[in-house]
């Protein structure tokens, strides 16, 4: 059962309430998205750690229901 | 030997390891193919391991680093990232720096 953009945004927002989230649907098939996420909680963390925070927020959907999520993460400037 | 030990041994006995879908000559996934292109462009020597050949490996590698997707690149035993991170690091020259810091000579792009 593919995911829609709102579900992804909601899950990320639950974990990162302050985040600015922009989700783009790459293929219209419900499992290829790109997401830009800006959040204070990324400050001082490596990219791997930042992305892991997003994957944890997605509660196991990543790599299964959600095949591809191209991520760009950073702390606010 | 458990799959976790096998993975650990592979990343510790090879300088650069890419767990991927398919093989360097025949990547079977766009994301794996992108990382192969970057590594080939840099002339970085690496060992490609096809996770499609063994389901236990395919799930085991995701547990090994708590990273849910393939491909995964390791340099000197350290997990560097998946396709997004490798592409971003390549564009910012960070990947080239990471290689030379670990004593692996690669082409410094323009």
TrEMBL record, chain A:
Gene3D superfamilies: BolA-like. InterPro entries: BolA, BolA-like_sf, BolA/IbaG_stress_morph_reg. Keywords: ATP-binding, Nucleotide-binding. SUPFAM superfamilies: BolA-like (SSF82657). It comes from the Bacteria. The keyword Nucleotide-binding applies. GO terms for molecular function: ATP binding. PANTHER family: BOLA TRANSCRIPTION REGULATOR (PTHR46229), BOLA-LIKE PROTEIN 1 (PTHR46229:SF2). Belongs to the BolA/IbaG family. This is ATP-binding protein. It comes from Roseibium aquae.
From TrEMBL, chain B:
One of its GO terms (molecular function) is metal ion binding. [2Fe-2S] cluster binds at residue 29. InterPro entries: Glutaredoxin, GRX_PICOT-like, Monothiol_GRX, Monothiol_GRX-rel, Thioredoxin-like_sf. Residues 16-80 form the Glutaredoxin domain. Transmembrane segments: none annotated. CDD domains: GRX_PICOT_like. It holds the Pfam family Glutaredoxin. Keywords: 2Fe-2S, Iron, Iron-sulfur, Metal-binding, Redox-active center. The keyword Protein biosynthesis does not apply. NCBIfam families: Grx4 family monothiol glutaredoxin. Belongs to the glutaredoxin family. Monothiol subfamily. This is Glutaredoxin. It comes from Roseibium aquae.
């Amino acid at each position: 059962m593919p995911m829609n953009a709102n579900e992804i945004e909601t899950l990320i927002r639950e974990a990162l309430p302050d985040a600015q989230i922009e989700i783009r649907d790459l293929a219209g098939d419900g499992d290829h998205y790109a997401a830009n996420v800006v959040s204070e909680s990324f400050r001082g963390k490596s990219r791997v750690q930042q992305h892991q925070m997003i994957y944890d927020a997605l509660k196991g959907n990543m790599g299964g229901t959600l095949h591809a999520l191209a991520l760009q993460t950073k702390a606010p400037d | 030997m458990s799959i976790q030990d096998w993975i650990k041994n592979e990343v510790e006995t090879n300088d650069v390891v890419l767990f991927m879908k398919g093989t360097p000559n025949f990547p079977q996934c766009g994301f794996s193919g992108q990382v192969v292109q970057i590594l080939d462009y840099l002339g970085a020597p690496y060992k490609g391991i096809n996770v499609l050949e063994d389901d236990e490996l395919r799930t085991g590698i995701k547990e090994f680093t708590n990273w849910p997707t393939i491909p995964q690149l390791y340099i000197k035993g350290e997990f560097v990232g998946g396709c997004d991170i490798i592409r971003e690091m390549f564009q910012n020259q960070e990947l080239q720096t990471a290689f030379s810091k670990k004593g692996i000579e690669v082409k410094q792009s323009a």
